[in-house]
Amino acid sequence: MGVNQRSSAATAGAAENGHEPGLKKVVAASMVGTVVEWYEFFLYATAATLVFGKYFFPATGNELDGIISAFLTYAVGFVARPLGGIVFGQIGDKLGRKPTLQLTIVIIGASTFLMGCLPGFAQAGYWAPAMLVALRFIQGFALGGEWGGAVLLVAEHSPNKSRAFWSSWPQAAVPVGNLLATLVLFIMSTMLSSEAFLGWGWRVAFWLSAVIVFVGYYIRTHVTEAPIFLEAKAQVESEKAISYGVGEVLRKYPKGVFQAMGLRFAENIMYYLVVSFVVVYLKTVHKYDTSQLLLALLIAHVIHFLVIPQVGRLADSWGRKPVYLIGAVTGAIWPFIAFPMFDTKNAVIIVLGVTIGLIFHAFMYAGQPAIMSELFPTRMRYSGVSLGSQVTSIFAGSLAPLFATQWLKDTHSWVPTAIYLVIACIITAAVVLTLKETRGVSLRDIDDADAERHGLPIPSSVAGAVGRHS
Asked: What is the CATH number of the domain that holds 374?
C-alpha cells in the first residue's frame, strides 16, 4: 500500500471512530456560513411582515392585503429553492461540497444587499415589487443549494455514533441567523421613529449582509472535503459508467426522495407559522407593538438554538424515529395551546407560547440532516437531500403563512390554521413510520450496499482505502 493510500485509510478510520481531524472546524465553518445565509433569508421574512406590505405595494385600506402580497413575493424564494437544489446538488455531487457552498454564499449576499437598495412603490410603481421578486428568486435559488451542502459537510465528517448530534449544529445555526436578523430590526425599530424605520431604517439590515458575507466565505475556504466524499468522487471519475446527481437519485432512490419530502412537510409548515404568522396574528388581531414582537422572537430563537443540539443527542441515543414522532405529535398539539396563550395579551405568556412552538419544532428539525444523509449513498447524497428538502418548501413553508393570513382575514380565527398544521403533522408522522431506523449506521455500509445493489465497484477500493475501520 502506498503512502497516500495509507493516509487515506487512516483518515477514514479516524472519521469512523469519531476522531476526524478538524471536525469542530468543519462544524464551525458550516455554522458560520449558514448563520450568514439564513440571516439574509429570514431578514426578508421578518421585513415582509413588518415593512414590505406597506412599502412595495399600493394601499388598499386593509393592512392584511399588503401583508398577503408581501408573502406572495416571499413564496417566490421557496419556488426557486428546488431549482437551486437541483443545480447546486449536481455541482456538489460532482465538484464537492466546499466550492458549492462558497458560491451560494456569495450569490445570496449580493442579492440581499441589492434588496436594500430598491425603490418603493411610491417611487417606482409596479417596477418596485417586480425587482423585489427577481432578487427574491435569485436569493431562494442560491439557498436551495446551501442547506444540503452545509449539513452534509458535517454529516460526512461525523462519527457514526454521534452523527445526529454533530449534524444538528448547522440546524442550530438557523435560529442564530434568524436571531441576528431579528436583533438588527429590533434595534432599528426601537432607535427610529416608525416613519424613519419604514423609510430607510430597514435597509441597514440588508446592507449589513455585504459585511458579514465575507466572514462566512473566508471561513469556508479553510475546510476540507470528507474522505468518504473523496472516495465516491474517485469512483465516479474512474468508472465512467457510474452516474450521480439528480437524474440518478430519482431513478435509483425515488422512495428516499419522497421520504425526505414527507419528513420536511410538517416541520417546514410549523416553523413558518411560528416565526411569521404569529407575528401577523399578534400585530393585526391584538395590535401588539413591533418592538415587543421582535423581542419575543429574540428570546424564542435563543432557546431554539440551545435545544436543537440536545435533541440531536436524543436522536443518537433514542433513535431517529421516536424523536421525530415526538415532534410530529407535539407539533399537532401546539396551536391549541399557543393561540389561547397569545389571546391573553400577556407578554410573558406570549413569549412562552412562541418558545414552546420552537422547542416542539426542534424534535423534528434536529435529526433531519442525519436521517436524510442516511437515505442516500454518497455519490448522489447532495442531490437527494437538496431535492427532497427543497421541493417540499414550495407547498409547505412558502404557503403556510400565506394560507394562515388569508384564513385569518376570511374567518377572523386561528382554528383553520390549527387544523392545517394537524393534517401536516399526521402526514409527516405516517412517513416517519415508513423509515428504517438508521441510528449508528455507517455511511460506508450505505455506499457498499448501493454498489452491491447496482453492480458497482466498492467506492473505498476504487479510492485506494483498504478496510472499513469501524
From this structure: 1.20.1250.20
Q: % helix / strand / coil in the chain, to the nearest 5?
A: 80, 0, 20
- Find, among 135, 153, 175, the residue nearest to 38 by Cα: 175
Grid cell in block for residue 229: 466524499
Domain extent at residue 261: 14-220+254-463
Dihedral sign of CA atoms 411, 413, 418, 419 in order: negative
- pLDDT tens digits along 300-317: 989 999 999 999 999 999
- What does the alpha-carbon distance between residue 463 and residue 141 come to, in Å, rounded to a whole number? 33
Q: Is residue 230 included in any domain, yes or no?
A: no
The answer to whether position 6 is within a domain reads: no
pLDDT for 224 beyond 50:
yes
22: left (phi over 0), alpha (psi -120 to 50) or beta: left
Predicted model pTM: 0.81
Closest C-alpha among 305, 269, 277 to residue 293 = 277
Q: Cβ(407)–Cβ(417) under 8 Å?
A: yes
In a 13 Å sphere around the CA of 468, the CA atoms on its Cβ side amount to 13
Mean pLDDT of 241-264: 83
Rounded to the nearest 5°, which phi and psi values hold at 162? -135, 30
**Whether 303 contacts 359, CB under 8 Å:** yes
Residue 76, domain member (yes or no): yes
Identify the H or E element spanning 455. none
| Number of domains present in the structure of the chain | 1
**Is 61 a member of any domain?**
yes
The sign of the dihedral angle between the CA atoms of 111, 391, 176, 92 is negative
Name the pLDDT band for 273 (thresholds 50, 70, 90).
very high
Residue 297, sorted as left (phi over 0), alpha (psi -120 to 50) or beta, turns out to be alpha
The conformation of residue 437, written as its DSSP 8-state character, comes to: P
